[in-house]
Amino acid sequence: MTLDDLTVNISHLDQSMILSDWQWLIGVNKLPILVCAIGDVFLQDSETGVIDCLDVSSGEVLPIASDVNEFRELLSSTEFVVNHFAVQLVGDLLKSGLSLASGEVFSFKKPLALGGDCVLENIEPTDLEVHFSIYGQIHEQIKNLPDGVSVDNIKIG
Prior knowledge:
This protein is an alpha+beta fold.
């Protein structure tokens, strides 16, 4: 499996708009530079050059590298790729017959943050802009709720 199998091309999209529903968390200076097939995204701060990872399922931003050169080095590390690109899960999805069309990512039908399970049956190919929009809106609405609380109402715009 190559990095091309584990990522999605976003060069044809407006990078400044892909994560507009996440600005409440990431601000306006972070732009996507690499989208994982499993729906997470690596961001670069346009002012500092720092690279972070937006874990879309957990709604967290994780520090990754101080600059693009350090990030490129990490991408050559098998351990880093296995840990951040869900290699086993993507492989299992592809083996099960699922595939991604241009502009799609694998996304949980029922998000983990809303009680969904990390099983193949709960994952489907989804337009990446829809994926980021829905997850950003969900996480913004549940960000102040304690873990384990029942969520009765989510509004998606």
